[in-house]
Specification:
alpha/beta; 3 domains; FAD; 24 strands; binds flavin-adenine dinucleotide; 579 residues; 18 helices; binds 2-acetamido-2-deoxy-beta-D-glucopyranose; single chain; Flavin_MAO; Polyamine Oxidase, Chain A, domain 2; FAD/NAD(P)-binding domain; Flavin_amine_oxidase; Guanine Nucleotide Dissociation Inhibitor, domain 1; 8-stranded mixed sheet
Length: 579
């Protein structure tokens, strides 16, 4: 039995734990929580609202009168009187149409409501939440049996999101630390990591713990220092000032690590590669992502932030919190579900007598709405480009949107009667690489048992080539592939156990097409004017705005970015409309 890879073995000699060094430098880059301690008791959450029949159907929505009493609303009445187009005579213009009822769209609505600005949210799906979706795995109506099918984790630096959940009356919790529940004794339990030489124990969160020689450690630190220097030379607001910007954009992040930093000359390349990949976490293989995108994003994300390294989930689920918000919004505006926006055009009518600004006509497959302003909230690039704009979007914006890609991502959950892996001393965290594929992209699974601990859930996120591989398999073969990962990591489950499967491939979801916008190799430099406009100004024309996790330079790709960009757009709208 070779002790060579057991980093914390007392006889490991002059070895350093790579994980420790990197955790301090890259804490914010992980998406897997450190601790999972869940006890056996059930707690009902008192303040959860069941989905109510609160949404107006498009058919009767245009008859609803707007309750707004603001100055803005009086202007809208004026403009309605002066309106000439008979087509819209049955409806008054609304101040703001928000396209998309995900976190960004409803954050905009929330802020507008606080300023008495009228709005209408238009959502293509029959449900709220966009890339947020909760599932009640027990089907007995207990909110604490919820697991997350889409977005899930809030990091302790995600202050917009945490404040938002609290304002909605929803608690965030650290899994395993639930008050009143028995803590799961996880300090001594291990995650598992698949390496080219087999499965190994890892830290509770599944990070590999490698022993490195002094020389390897020196090399690794030198590389890490250089990468951080290159990040610091790629300022969030002016990344092209990096003198190597064209080179870094021409390299994928994978090539940047292997070739530019000569990682391939490392004695055991794999030991450090995965750790450095974590500096640029996307839902796509590093072979496709521009290295310049990674340096830019790291500069934007890490600036001035000290990550405490804690990860939270939302008790009752992040979609429940949005449903609660939607019920509160009813007094100021309406939310139309199952209405897809097809076109956004200038009308013949002016916003008001004193302005030349044209009202916008928002055409959906069910109805047409007049609005002063339109916010595109969270629509992935391909969905956004399907909308017909008259006049067209600025060229640099359409160019940017046509270049951006989304990661291929799936969340696959195995629901067992109990978290059997804990009894064997394992945390449930797995990190694996599919060595039959050329990509060394690490995939992650984790203990995703619900707050109530009524079931044991293991959830795997599969991305990039691994996910595309799983897409080609039958349902049965996919299940066998993922169960083989779990059994490889923790041993077989109890013999009689046939877990329930909850599987969602977001890349095959018509209104998402994946998650986490990234710049493919070679696209970042040439699309900077569009990036500046979309990610920083959030304004595409005098009355068309853009928000969303994928268009936020803070917490890019996360709920926190969706909320932050939505709030920023709403503030600008309040200023504009109250001016
Ligand atoms: C598997 C997975 C795991 C994730 N994990 C995390 C995590 O742990 N932590 C985290 O913070 N984030 C996570 N995310 C990301 C997070 O879910 C998203 O960033 C966030 O929910 C995006 O919100 P949004 O409002 O910007 O966009 P969306 O939620 O995508 O909202 C856009 C809305 O627009 C609608 N729409 C599209 N086209 C039209 C149209 N033509 N007309 C009308 N409506 C339209 C869509 O249906 C959708 O509801 C994850 C995502 C996935 C998929
Ligand atoms: C919004 O309207 C309510 C009720 O008319 C009023 O009390 C409140 O002050 C208004 N808020 C703002 C920000 O105008
Ligand atoms: C981002 O870039 C600015 C400007 O070069 C630099 O001062 C800052 O330290 C960088 N941030 C990080 C995290 O490197
Ligand atoms: C409008 O589009 C949505 C989303 O595609 C669809 O669910 C709905 O049935 C459509 N409605 C009509 C009237 O065509
Ligand atoms: C790995 O971790 C498990 C669970 O904590 C433990 O039982 C086992 O002995 C460990 N194996 C090694 C080789 O350390
Ligand atoms: C690994 O990739 C091979 C080849 O595409 C595929 O057959 C297998 O199911 C994959 N396994 C997992 C766990 O993704």
């Amino acid at each position: 039995m070779g002790p060579r890879l057991r980093g914390n073995h007392p006889s490991a000699g002059p070895a350093f734990l790579l994980e420790v060094a990197v955790a301090a430098l890259a804490a914010a880059a992980s998406d897997v929580p450190e601790k999972f301690n869940v006890g056996p008791e059930h707690f009902m959450q008192a303040n959860l609202h069941k989905e109510q029949a609160l949404f107006l159907k498009p058919a009767d929505a245009h008859e609803a009168t707007c309750q707004s009493r603001s100055f803005v609303q009086r202007r809208s009445e004026v403009s309605q009187v002066s309106a000439s187009g008979a087509d819209f005579s049955s409806q008054s213009a609304v101040d703001v149409v928000i396209v998309g009822a995900g976190y960004s769209g409803l954050s905009v609505a929330h802020k507008l409501r606080q300023s008495n600005i009228s709005f209408r949210v238009i959502e293509a799906r029959h449900r709220l939440g966009g890339r947020i979706l909760d599932e009640d795995i027990s089907k007995r109506g207990d909110a604490d049996d919820t697991i997350e099918i889409g977005g899930q984790w809030l990091h302790d630096t995600h202050s917009n999101a945490i404040a938002f959940m609290n304002a909605m009356g929803f608690d965030v919790y650290e899994p395993g630390q639930q008050e009143g529940l028995q803590k799961f004794p996880c300090s001594g339990c291990h995650g598992r990591v698949a390496t080219s030489s087999g499965w190994l124990n890892a830290s509770a969160s599944g990070k590999a713990t490698w022993p490195l020689s002094i020389e390897e450690m020196r090399l690794f630190h030198a590389t890490l220092d250089t990468i951080w220097k290159e990040i610091s030379e790629t300022p969030c607001k002016d990344p092209l000032s990096n003198p190597n910007a064209p080179i870094f954009d021409s390299l994928s992040y994978d090539a940047y690590l292997r070739q530019h930093h000569q990682l391939e000359s490392f004695p055991e390349f794999e030991r450090v590669y995965g750790t450095l990949l974590d500096l640029c976490l996307e839902a796509e293989g590093a072979e496709r992502v521009s290295a310049l995108h990674c340096l830019w994003k790291a500069n934007c994300t890490h600036s001035g932030q000290h990550a405490g390294g804690k990860f939270f989930r939302v008790r009752g689920g992040p979609q429940a919190s949005l449903k609660h918000l939607a019920s509160e919004l009813q007094s100021m505006g309406s939310i139309w579900l199952s209405s897809e926006v097809l076109a956004i055009k200038d009308s013949d009518e002016s916003d008001s007598e004193e302005s030349d600004e044209k009202l916008k006509v928002v055409v959906t497959n069910t109805t047409t709405v007049l609005a002063r302003h339109v916010v595109l909230a969270g629509l992935p690039p391909a969905q956004l480009l399907k909308i017909k704009f008259v006049p067209q979007l600025p060229e640099e914006v359409s160019k940017l949107l046509s270049l951006l890609s989304l990661g291929s991502v799936r969340k696959y959950s195995l629901v067992y009667k109990a978290p059997w892996w804990r009894a064997r001393g394992y945390s449930g965290s797995i990190r694996y690489v599919n060595y039959s594929l050329p990509s060394l992209d690490p995939q992650r699974c984790f203990d995703n048992s619900p707050y109530s601990a009524s079931r044991g859930v293991l959830t795997c996120m599969t991305t990039g080539d691994v996910n595309r591989g799983l897409q080609r398999l039958s349902e049965e073969a996919r299940r066998a592939a993922l169960q083989s990962v779990v059994h490889g990591a923790f041993g077989a489950a109890e013999a009689d156990e046939s877990p329930q499967v909850v599987d969602k491939d977001w890349s095959r979801d018509a209104y998402s097409g994946g998650a986490n916008v990234f710049y493919p190799t070679g696209t970042f430099s040439s699309s900077w004017p569009g990036t500046l406009q979309v990610f920083f100004h959030h304004q595409l024309s005098s009355s068309i705005w853009i928000a969303g996790a994928d268009y936020s330079h803070i917490s890019h790709g996360y709920m926190n970015g969706a909320i932050g960009s939505g709030q920023a757009v709403a503030e600008r709208l309040v200023q504009t409309l109250h001016a």
